Structures are given as C-alpha cells and as structure tokens.
Amino acid sequence: MYLTWTGGPLSGIAQLPASKSEANRALILQALAGGGTLDNLSDANDTQLMQRLLAIAPNATELSAEDAGTVMRFLTAYLSVTNWRGRLTGTARMQERPIAVLVDALQQAGASISYLTNKGYPPLEIGGFTSTKTTGALTELAVRGDISSQYISALLMVGPYLPGGLRLTLTGHVGSRPYINMTVALMQLFGANCVAEGDMLTVQAGTYSPTNYTIESDWSAASYWYSLVAMGPAGSEIMLPRLRRKSLQGDQAIAEIMTHFGVETSFLPNAVHLKQQPLAPQSEIQTLDFTDCPDLAQTVAVVAAALARPVDMTGLESLRIKETDRIAALQTELAKFGGDLREVAAGRFRAESTDFAVDNQTVATYHDHRMAMAFAPLAMRGPLNIEAPTVVRKSYPQFWKELTKSGFVISEAD
Ligand SMILES: O=C(O)C1=C[C@@H](OP(=O)(O)O)[C@@H](O)[C@H](O)C1
Ligand SMILES: C=C(OP(=O)(O)O)C(=O)O
C-alpha cells in the first residue's frame, strides 16, 4: 500500500482506539465479577477477540488467542481458575512466545496445564483446578518479572479466587512495571483487596464487584501521532481526544520522551494537544530507557533516525519476544532508509542515521502492527510502500482511515 503526504503542516483531530491493555483487564475482571458495564471498548482485534473468547468459552473446547499476548496469558489464568477444560492455542508466532513462567506458577497454585507441542510454549491443554492449599492458606509464589509482566498481571487478576488469596514475590529485573500497576489499580477499582509493596504483591481472597468503567484512549497508539507531529512540516499539530493527564498507562511516557524531538503536549480537560516546536541543537546523545514502556521503542527509534537526532535506547530485552523480534525488524527496515539501530554496548542500542532519505522504499511489517505504524510517519518525508497494512487491526484498525482524514493519500501497490 502506497502512502503519500499532501504537504503542509499536519492539523486537526485524530481519533484513537481505546487502550487494549485496560480493556483486556477490565473484560477479565468483568467476567469474574459477573456484571458491570465497560464504556469505550475498542474495535481493536485484541479487545474484540478477548470479548468473543470469554463469551464462547463455556461452550468451547478449543480457543485461539491468535497473536494477542494479553489474551493468551490472561485467559490461561482465567480459564484455569474457572475450571475450564480444553485447548488454548494461537498463531505460529504465539507458539514461539514463552509462557512457562505463568504455567509453572499456575501449576503450583493447583492448575492442571500441559504443553501440547513444545515445553514452555502454547498451545496448552488446560484441565481444571484443584487447590493445593488447605482452605484458608495463602498461595505464595516467587515469579520472574524479567520476561513478561503479562504473567504477573494474569496471576494477580485471578488472585482473589484462590482460596486464601495470593502473594507474589517478583524476582529479577522487573520490566513493564506500569502494566502491573495498571492491573493492581483496576483490580482495586473492581473491589479487590490488592496491595503492592515493592516487589511483593498481596491479594486477599474474595470476589470482584460489578463495576462501570470508561476505558481511556490508547497512549501507545498516540505515540504515532507524536511521531507525525515531530516529522511533519513546521507548525504541525494535532488534537487527540479522550487521553487523560492522570492515566493508568505507562506509555503516557511518550509525552515526556517526545519533548526531546520537539513535540510539546498540552493537557486539556478530555484530550491532549500536540504541537511541534523548533528543535534545539543537541549537545550530547541522550539515553532513553524503555524497560517500563517497551511498546514505544519502535516509534522512538524511527523518529530518532528520521530526524537525525541519535538516542541511546536501553531496556529493549523484551522486544525480541513480542509480535516479532522487534530489534531485528527495526534494524532491517531502518537500514533501507539510511537508519541504524546498533548495539554500542551490552543492552545499549543507538538509533541514528546518515543521509536518511524516504523515496519509495517498501517497509516489511513482520505481522507486527507497531512496525507498520512506527514507519508510516516517514511518508511525510517521501512516498512509502507499506506491506501487509491490515496488520494494524491488532490495536488500531482505523489507523489508515485517520491518516487519510489528516491529509495522507493511500493507493494500492501494483
Ligand atoms: O499487560 C499488557 O497489557 C501489556 C504488557 C506489555 O508486555 P510485556 O509485559 O510482555 O512487556 C506490553 O508490551 C503489551 O503490549 C501489553
Ligand atoms: C506486545 C504487544 O502486544 P501483546 O504482547 O499483548 O501481543 C503490543 O501490542 O505491542
């Protein structure tokens, strides 16, 4: 699909999808509570899929989480404690994304789960739940926090339904911590007694209450609009509705990160306004840590290369086990434009460029929505061909439509 920019500064309003992270937690909590209403659920496939699978699970013996990490991990825990029996599978890539940390923990708590193909990876056979504890005894587990926070969120959410409750002690260098905090905050909102004290998280046995909750727009999706404002002609700006200053989403960090690339954020009552500012010369290379916000890494790597404003990026370890190996994918695709993501020291990647130019290159997307959306803003600098553009349906199905509303022209590749 060819993408071209009609020229002039970016302006107007762009609609964002609702956060799929908030939605997929709220859907699990709602299913366990047995009621309540959720406003602003998005049309993102990850959210639609979670809704659909929760609805059909009671009458199904095989479910596919497709390529949705939260669906795979959260449902493994939910289906186990609700005594579901059947197979839980996913796409070929999902079958390469590890799940042993979660399965081990659930087995210790009393779940019967086995691997159908490769040990440590989906598909799983889920076979009911028999608590290993005498009634009233707390389930205490030590869980690694350095692979995926989704295992921890999954365990926490079913915590109230373990007889005696749950105490998790996180080990290792915990990544994506804001997502754990989001889980704790939403559990509390749904009436759970859940306390986080550093790396120890304690959930009392109990039930969730039917709750009404309005899901915020998605800050990870907002990051592509920050990128468009940063790369657009002088004077570019955009209004993004339904983002809050007080957010549960760690990817709100994009507001601070993008000050470095000349984008100023103003928080309005129920929206944010982004405006391009003149870029001050850069005296030294900044280091940005993505441990807490891994989904922003692709957006930032592409902006840094396109603006020839190098940054050192750390905390990228989890990128290798997401929808694709995002480090390898970034390296291959940036190289097509004169960009680079080079490991300059262990765990430190420099995003930079020499003679960066956009001129009809084809961007491969690797079944990864964020590859498509992170590279799309380059079309402001020249015509671009994006392969398999429908990949955005995972989190932001309306992305291309919103771009055309803002002055991009889309035509089909020959
Ligand atoms: O809990 C969540 O909603 C998510 C947690 C993060 O994953 P990891 O914890 O695997 O880093 C993030 O990358 C993903 O898009 C959504
Ligand atoms: C990593 C992502 O999603 P998930 O892990 O839920 O598949 C993402 O949306 O960038």
TrEMBL record:
It catalyses: 3-phosphoshikimate + phosphoenolpyruvate = 5-O-(1-carboxyvinyl)-3-phosphoshikimate + phosphate. Keywords: Amino-acid biosynthesis, Aromatic amino acid biosynthesis, Transferase. Residues 59-403 form the Enolpyruvate transferase domain. It is an enzyme of class 2 (transferase). InterPro entries: Enolpyruvate_Tfrase_dom, Enolpyruvate_Tfrase_sf, EPSP_synthase, EPSP_synthase_CS, RNA3'P_cycl/enolpyr_Trfase_a/b. It comes from Hymenobacter negativus. SUPFAM superfamilies: EPT/RTPC-like (SSF55205). Pathway: Metabolic intermediate biosynthesis; chorismate biosynthesis; chorismate from D-erythrose 4-phosphate and phosphoenolpyruvate: step 6/7. The lineage of its organism: Bacteria, Pseudomonadati, Bacteroidota, Cytophagia, Cytophagales. Belongs to the EPSP synthase family. Its EC number is 2.5.1.19. This is 3-phosphoshikimate 1-carboxyvinyltransferase.
